[in-house]
Prior knowledge:
Layout: H1 2-9, H2 22-36, H3 39-48, H4 54-67, E1 76-77, E2 85-86, H5 91-108, H6 112-140, H7 142-153, H8 156-161, H9 170-185, H10 191-207, H11 212-229, H12 231-255, H13 271-289, H14 295-316, H15 330-335, H16 346-352, H17 354-377, H18 382-401, H19 405-409, H20 413-429, H21 435-447, H22 450-463, H23 475-478, H24 484-488, E3 493-495, H25 501-507, E4 511-512, H26 521-530, H27 534-543, E5 548-552, H28 563-570, E6 578-581, E7 593-598
Parallel strand pairs: 3-4, 3-5
Antiparallel strand pairs: 1-2, 5-7, 6-7
Helix pairs in contact: 2-7, 3-6, 4-5, 4-25, 5-6, 6-7, 6-9, 6-20, 7-20, 9-10, 9-11, 9-18, 10-12, 11-12, 11-14, 11-18, 12-13, 13-14, 16-17, 17-18, 17-20, 17-22, 20-21, 26-27
Amino acid sequence: xxxxxxxxxxxxxxxxxxxxxxxxxxxxxxxxxxxxxxxxxxxxxxxxxxxxxxxxxxxxxxxxxxxxxxxxxxxxxxxxxxxxxxxxxxxxxxxxxxxxxxxxxxxxxxxxxxxxxxxxxxxxxxxxxxxxxxxxxxxxxxxxxxxxxxxxxxxxxxxxxxxxxxxxxxxxxxxxxxxxxxxxxxxxxxxxxxxxxxxxxxxxxxxxxxxxxxxxxxxxxxxxxxxxxxxxxxxxxxxxxxxxxxxxxxxxxxxxxxxxxxxxxxxxxxxxxxxxxxxxxxxxxxxxxxxxxxxxxxxxxxxxxxxxxxxxxxxxxxxxxxxxxxxxxxxxxxxxxxxxxxxxxxxxxxxxxxxxxxxxxxxxxxxxxxxxxxxxxxxxxxxxxxxxxxxxxxxxxxxxxxxxxxxxxxxxxxxxxxxxxxxxxxxxxxxxxxxxxxxxxxxxxxxxxxxxxxxxxxxxxxxxxxxxxxxxxxxxxxxxxxxxxxxxxxxxxxxxxxxxxxxxxxxxxxxxxxxxxxxxxxxxxxxxxxxxxxxxxxxxxxxxxxxxxxxxxxxxxxxxxxxxxxxxxxxxxxxxxxxxxxxxxxxxxxxxxxxxxxxxxx
Length: 602
């Protein structure tokens, strides 16, 4: 195979290398983008508002409410009883989606929202691709930059998080963190690079705290470089600290009501996290004044700033040391949070979904190892390789405990894969290079492409039919047309499985008892307890004022796995106080949605 590949890329020593031809490289990139944004995937979202995830549905609900007149600072979801659940999401993500809908309305009318949901991820991917291309081009050259963009289209989680309909915040956070890292990787260590990295870090924190480990690592890198090198990196460190210390409070004030500025939240940018940013800003400012500090002096100043940051955080919000969900009841933590896919550890998913880990975790691991090896071997680009490998290791460490740690981590895989593929091709063409070395280089490059691992996983599943998981019929319950009859019923309150909540809010005028967000603890607990027994179901329905009971019977429909839900869906349980409501669908396949009207007087 290697010899055949060599024949393709080296037919004539005097000819121009195939992968140095811009037409070929751009052809690869466009083919990869075409695979991500095919016509069928986009039209599916436009026609049926079929969204990939519950968070995408809730994001669109938040944007719709904003456009309907809900206040900028009011991020509560008022159709989550009893008082409405406060969401910890950023309005900064709502803003561009809302603007896109407004731009499309004169042309598309009522379909503007669905078209925006289909197009926004592609626009976000375009932003990611531009950041990736420019960063890799400046560090490694134009060919490797185009190969990196192609590798991004072959990276499983990039494809998933930028897919049509994926309007959640992860795409913008990925762009911010990648841009921050690339600023630190540049050979020039000036104030401008530091300011840009700090500002992008502040933006990431304002969007969400998931990337906090990466930002902490970036701060340590900037501080460490200043401690070791002194004057050449002082402006980089100062710029990073100042931009973070000023930018984070500014963005916090931009999206937070003044009356809530003093409220502590462990799950979003708030006083304890702002204190950490302010401490970084003060330390950065102090470094500008300490131009003549020796190495021990710089270490003492940085250590003092770090101690001040930690001490202030502990005094302001000691409860946040336990994580973002310190007050979550054990029932909710066990029966809901512990079953959320993105919150599960690697060893659980390895047993249940090995193909998923093959396509996501392994490419990141290969990229991390390759980057660290090249950091030792490539002195000219040691900083870039070392930082890429370091950020990948930070993300992998988080991902071992929680799968969602891979979301931001995956941004760095194409950054390594592009130059690695470029080196592999160069070695294949290099006269005198051993076949073994060429083969290892080619395999290393291919091993960073998640879709290669997915192909191997698919072959393994086909060889072992028992390894295949259940089909997911979730969309037959959550797409807009599937809920058309339910939406036509008189507005009321729906008691349904927790994961159905966002789609019910998006596609119907009803209120819902529960949705999968940790600030809706009362609703989640009610949604868990309701389906324990018929008595519990009736009690929760009465207590929460439910007018309808809704379940999804499709395979993979995520309905509660208990005798009550199964009995209702199979018809074995027919309570006198529930009246079945016929539900049809405008979808080509049969809807899995089942609806009952609560009869309180019976």
